[in-house]
């Protein structure tokens, strides 16, 4: 059942938001953003779904420095009615869902230090803004994120947050999409990670399977390594259709009788794009991409 929320940290509002305080970033922090931005935008050319690059342009994220959340929100608001708000770190599930359901994306405001360039526990501003925000300019994806938040609030009352979190993980964080017969990246955990943006698309190790809501809700995931399994959607519109128009309560009940699947498993109904060798499992431990979310 839904539990009482912990109180917000000192300096945060009741909904856990804080001011970004953009003026407090120093030159080294902006330089770190520029370095990550340059490295990732070069890497992603031709690998990421084109709407991601369009989102960077629409939001003027190509200009140097850590973006100002107020400016991003203004442009996003015009486009799809979304806003970006700063939070001190991970927020409780229910609040996270409430923000999404109200078309507010919560983002960390700190940036990783040079020693953490490829490994980070908590989502920083580069993961949250570069990874997540460009696709919020896409109408169907923007609606999907809101629907996910609404689904989260319902799941909270049904004891099903863990199942729903798998949906987020395998789409919003680590999703692949098919475009003109080729696979492209769109998940924020992949696109914000230098190593995983190669691994997810090109490495023979991980499975790449067609999206199937029930299947994905049964599949465990790892937070400390590259994924062993990626799920491929046909389009953002299709993803939205399969989630927004679905009452998940009967699915949660149905799944209670079924065993969880290991991410290395393949089952008979799977639509297999690539049957992974799984030979690189564990090689990237401590090198998670999103570095969790
Ligand atoms: N809080 N700031 C932040 N960012 C997240 O991605 C996040 C969170 N709280 C909960 C959460 N993610 C997930 O556990 C939910 O998707 C279930
Ligand atoms: Fe994330």
Structural class of the secondary elements? alpha/beta
CATH architecture: Orthogonal Bundle
Would you state the CATH class?
Answer: Mainly Alpha
Strand line-up in the sheet with most strands? 4-3-6-5-7
* Shape assignment: globular
The tally of domains stands at 1
Average pLDDT metric: 93
Share of β-strand residues:
5-15%
**Structure annotation, total helices:** 12
The main β sheet shows up as:
5 strands, mixed
Specify the helix fraction band.
40-55%
Protein architecture, described:
By secondary structure, the protein is an alpha/beta fold. It has a single domain (22-274), classed as Orthogonal Bundle (Phenylalanine Hydroxylase), CATH 1.10.800.10. The protein is built from 12 helices and 7 strands. The chain has helices at residues 27-44, 50-58, 69-80, 93-101, 125-132, 139-158, 161-173, 188-191, 194-202, 213-217, 236-244, 248-255, and strands at residues 83-87, 104-108, 176-179, 182-185, 207-210, 229-233, 272-274. Strand 5, helix 10 and strand 6 (229-233) form a beta-alpha-beta unit. 39% of the residues are buried. The model is unreliable at 288-293 (pLDDT under 50). Bound molecules: 7,8-dihydrobiopterin and fe (iii) ion. The site of 7,8-dihydrobiopterin has 11 residues, from helix 4 and helix 7.
């Amino acid at each position: 059942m839904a539990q009482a929320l912990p109180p917000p940290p000192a300096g945060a509002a009741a909904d856990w938001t804080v001011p970004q305080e953009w003026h407090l970033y120093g030159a080294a922090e902006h330089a770190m953003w520029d370095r990550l931005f340059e490295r990732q935008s070069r890497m992603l050319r031709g690998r990421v779904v084109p709407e991601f690059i369009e989102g960077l342009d629409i939001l003027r994220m190509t200009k140097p420095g850590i973006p100002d959340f107020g400016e991003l929100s203004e442009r996003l608001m015009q486009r799809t009615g979304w806003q970006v708000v700063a939070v001190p770190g991970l927020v409780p599930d229910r609040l996270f869902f409430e923000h999404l359901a109200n078309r507010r994306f919560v983002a960390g405001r700190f940036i990783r230090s040079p020693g953490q360039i490829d490994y980070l526990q908590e989502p920083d501003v580069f993961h949250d803004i570069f990874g997540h925000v460009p696709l919020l300019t896409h109408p169907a994806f923007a609606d999907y994120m809101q629907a996910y938040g609404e689904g989260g609030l319902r799941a909270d009352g049904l004891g099903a947050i863990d199942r729903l979190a798998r949906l987020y993980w395998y789409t919003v964080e680590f999703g692949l999409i098919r475009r003109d017969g080729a696979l492209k990246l769109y998940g924020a955990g992949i696109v914000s990670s230098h190593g995983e943006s190669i691994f997810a698309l090109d490495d023979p190790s991980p499975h790449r399977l067609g999206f199937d809501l029930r299947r994905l809700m049964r599949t465990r995931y790892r937070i400390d390594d590259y994924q062993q399994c990626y799920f491929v959607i046909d389009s953002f519109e299709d993803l939205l259709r399969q989630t927004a128009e679905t009452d998940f309560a009967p699915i949660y009940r149905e799944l209670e009788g079924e065993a969880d699947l290991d991410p290395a498993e393949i089952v008979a109904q799977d639509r297999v794009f690539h049957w992974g060798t799984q030979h690189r499992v564990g090689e990237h431990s401590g090198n998670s991409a999103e570095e969790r979310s």
